C-alpha cells in the first residue's frame, strides 16, 4: 500500500520535474534571444506570450480559430486588444513568429531588405513533393531563374489576346441555370478558373465545367487540402497520412507530363512559328523555348497552376457576394459595360482597362477580401525592421518567421481618410470610394510589392474583368439567397468564402 502510494508520488514528481525542466529550458532560450537582440541593438516586437504556458494556450487558440475559419479575424482582434500592429510569440523560446500589419515593416520585408527575407528551407521542404523547385519554393538565384522563365508569358502584349477567357467564360455562362434560379457560384467559378488556367498553361483545358468530377480537378483539391495540413501542422507533418496526397500529385502529373513531352519534342523552329500565333501559343511553349528539362517545366507549371486557380475564383466569388448584397453596384457596373460594349460586344483588352467602375469593383473587393490574406517570410539572416515611430528597430534573428497580415493591414481604420460623403466606412463595400481616393503606398497590397510582386497580376485582373463584363452584359440583377451575414473567410493559403455563395441571376428582358 505504502509502496504503491510512494510510486504514485514518484510519478507526480517525475511529471512535475519534467515540466519544470522544459519550462526552464524555454526560459533560458528566451533569455538567449534577449541577449542576441541586445547585441544587434534593437528590441523585440510586443510579446504576446512570454512563457511555455501562455504560448501553448495561444497556439491552442490559433488551432481553434483556424478550425472555425475565423483565424484572420481573431488575429486582428488580438492585435487590436494590444493596440499594436506588430507582435511576436514563440513556443520554444527561439524561432519566433512575428506578425505585422504595419506598412513600413511590410515594405522593408518585401522590398527594402528583400534579400534578408525569403521563403526559407523549411517552406521549400514542405512544398517539395507538390511544387518541386518552382517559383514558389525557391529563393535567391534559383527564384530569379524561375521568375525569368515565367515572366515573358505575362507581358502586356501576350495578354491582349482574350480568346481563352472568351472560350471558358462562354462555357461558364452556359452552365448557369435559367434566369431566376439559384446557383452556388463558388464551385462553378473554381471550375471556370481551373479550365482557364490549364488552357493558358498547356493549351489544353481540363474541361471541369463540363465534367465537375474530373479527376484532375479532384486531385488538385485533394493535394491542396493535404498540403495545407502539412504546412500548418509542420512540426508533426511526418504523422499526417500522405497516401492521397502523393496519388493526387501523380494524377496531375499524368495529365500534364505527356503535354510537356510533346512540347519538348517540337523542333525549335516550330515553337518559334507557334510563338507568332497568339491563339496557339501557350505558357508551355514559352518555357520550352528556354528549357527542355521536363522537371523544370513541370515545377513551374504546377506553381502557376496553384497560383492561378483559387485566387481568381475566390476573388470573383467575393465580388458576387458583395454586389448581390448592394444591388446599386451591379446596376452601376452594368450601365458602364453597356455604354462601352452594349449587350453583346466582345470585350477587348483596351475596353476592359477603360472601364473605371469595373476596376474599382475589383480593387474594392481585393481591399476587403485579399486573396492572399496572410503570407509568410523567413529571416534568412539576422536583420531589423522599423519599430513604431520614435522607437528602436525590431530585431529578427535568422530563422524567425514573419507573418505578413495583409487582411489586417487593409482593415486598419487609422490608415484611411475620415469617413465622409465621399469616403464611406472602410468596413463597407463601396467601389465608389476609389473615385476620389488613392491609397498611400504600402497600405493596399493585395498583390504584395517589391521584386516578388505577383507576376500574374495583370493576367488575373484581365481574366476577372472579362468574366464580370460578360456576366453584366447578360444579367441585369443578382440576388443573394442565403444568410449573407453568416458568411466568413476560410483562410487556407487562399482566402475564400467559407460557406456556399448561392446567387440568383436575372437575365435582362431584352435577351
Ligand atoms: C486575385 C488574384 C491574385 C492575387 C490577389 C494574387 C496575389 C499574389 C501574391 C500576394 C503573391 C506573393 C506571394 C509571395 O510572395 O509569397 C503572388 C505571387 C504569385 N502569383 Fe499571384 N495573385 C493572383 C492571381 C494570380 C494568377 C492568376 C497567377 C497566374 C496566372 C498568379 C501567379 C503568381 C506567381 C507565379 C507568383 C509568384 C511570384 C514570385 O514568387 O516571384 N497570381 N500572387
UniProtKB/TrEMBL annotation:
Membrane association type: Single-pass membrane protein
Cofactor requirement: heme
Keyword Heme: yes
Entry's family note: Belongs to the cytochrome P450 family.
One family name in Pfam for this protein: p450
Cellular compartment(s): Membrane
InterPro entries noted in UniProt: Cyt_P450 (IPR001128), Cyt_P450_CS (IPR017972), Cyt_P450_E_CYP52_fungi (IPR047146), Cyt_P450_E_grp-I (IPR002401), Cyt_P450_sf (IPR036396)
Transmembrane segments: 12-28
Listed CDD domains: CYP52 (cd11063)
Gene3D superfamilies for the chain: Cytochrome P450
Protein name per the record: Cytochrome P450 alkane hydroxylase
Keyword set, alphabetical order: Glycoprotein, Heme, Iron, Membrane, Metal-binding, Monooxygenase, Oxidoreductase, Transmembrane, Transmembrane helix
MF terms (GO), sorted A to Z: heme binding; iron ion binding; monooxygenase activity; oxidoreductase activity, acting on paired donors, with incorporation or reduction of molecular oxygen
Organism superkingdom: Eukaryota
Cellular-component GO terms for this entry: membrane
Residues binding heme: 454
Predominant localisation class: membrane
Amino acid at each position: 500500500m505504502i509502496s504503491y502510494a510512494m510510486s504514485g508520488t514518484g510519478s507526480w514528481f517525475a511529471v512535475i520535474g519534467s515540466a519544470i525542466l522544459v519550462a526552464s529550458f524555454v526560459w533560458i532560450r528566451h533569455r538567449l534571444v534577449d541577449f542576441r537582440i541586445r547585441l544587434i541593438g534593437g528590441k523585440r516586437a510586443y510579446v504576446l506570450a512570454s512563457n511555455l504556458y501562455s504560448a501553448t494556450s495561444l497556439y491552442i487558440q490559433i488551432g481553434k480559430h483556424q478550425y472555425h475559419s475565423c483565424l484572420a479575424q481573431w488575429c486582428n482582434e488580438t492585435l487590436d486588444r494590444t493596440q499594436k500592429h506588430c507582435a511576436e510569440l514563440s513556443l520554444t523560446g527561439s524561432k519566433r513568429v512575428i506578425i505585422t500589419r504595419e506598412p513600413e515593416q511590410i515594405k522593408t520585408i518585401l522590398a527594402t531588405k528583400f534579400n534578408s527575407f525569403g521563403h526559407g528551407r523549411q517552406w521549400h521542404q514542405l512544398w517539395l513533393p507538390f511544387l518541386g523547385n518552382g517559383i514558389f519554393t525557391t529563393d535567391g538565384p534559383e527564384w530569379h531563374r524561375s521568375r525569368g522563365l515565367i515572366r515573358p508569358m505575362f507581358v502586356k502584349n501576350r495578354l491582349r489576346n482574350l480568346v481563352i477567357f472568351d472560350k471558358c467564360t462562354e462555357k461558364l455562362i452556359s452552365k448557369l441555370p435559367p434566369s431566376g434560379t439559384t446557383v452556388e457560384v463558388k464551385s462553378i467559378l473554381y471550375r471556370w478558373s481551373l479550365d482557364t488556367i490549364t488552357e493558358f498553361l498547356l493549351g489544353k483545358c481540363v474541361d471541369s465545367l463540363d465534367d465537375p468530377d474530373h479527376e484532375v480537378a479532384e486531385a488538385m483539391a485533394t493535394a491542396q487540402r493535404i498540403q495545407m495540413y502539412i504546412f500548418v501542422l509542420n512540426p508533426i507533418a511526418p504523422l499526417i497520412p500522405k497516401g492521397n496526397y502523393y496519388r493526387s500529385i501523380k494524377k496531375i502529373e499524368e495529365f500534364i507530363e505527356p503535354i510537356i513531352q510533346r512540347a519538348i519534342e517540337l523542333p525549335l523552329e516550330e515553337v518559334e512559328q507557334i510563338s507568332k500565333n497568339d491563339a496557339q501559343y501557350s505558357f508551355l511553349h514559352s518555357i520550352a523555348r528556354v528549357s527542355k528539362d521536363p522537371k523544370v517545366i513541370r515545377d513551374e507549371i504546377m506553381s502557376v497552376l496553384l497560383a492561378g486557380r483559387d485566387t481568381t475564383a475566390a476573388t470573383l466569388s467575393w465580388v458576387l457576394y458583395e454586389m448581390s448584397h448592394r444591388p446599386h453596384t451591379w446596376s452601376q457596373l452594368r450601365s458602364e459595360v453597356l455604354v462601352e460594349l452594349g449587350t453583346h460586344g466582345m470585350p477587348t483588352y483596351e475596353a476592359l482597362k477603360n472601364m473605371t467602375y469595373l476596376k474599382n469593383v475589383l480593387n474594392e473587393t481585393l481591399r476587403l477580401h485579399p486573396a492572399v490574406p496572410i503570407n509568410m517570410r523567413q529571416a534568412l539572416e539576422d536583420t531589423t525592421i522599423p519599430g513604431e515611430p520614435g522607437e528602436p528597430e525590431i530585431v529578427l534573428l535568422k530563422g524567425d518567421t514573419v507573418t505578413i497580415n495583409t487582411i489586417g493591414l487593409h482593415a486598419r481604420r487609422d490608415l484611411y481618410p475620415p469617413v465622409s460623403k465621399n469616403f464611406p466606412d472602410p468596413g463597407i463595400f463601396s467601389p465608389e470610394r476609389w473615385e476620389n481616393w488613392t491609397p498611400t503606398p504600402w497600405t493596399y497590397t493585395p498583390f504584395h510589392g517589391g521584386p516578388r510582386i505577383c507576376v500574374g497580376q495583370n493576367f488575373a485582373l484581365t481574366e476577372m474583368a472579362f468574366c464580370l463584363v460578360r456576366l453584366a452584359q447578360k444579367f441585369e440583377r443578382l440576388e443573394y439567397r442565403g444568410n449573407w451575414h453568416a458568411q466568413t473567410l476560410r483562410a487556407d493559403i487562399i482566402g475564400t468564402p467559407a460557406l456556399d455563395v448561392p446567387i440568383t441571376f436575372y437575365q435582362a428582358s431584352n435577351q
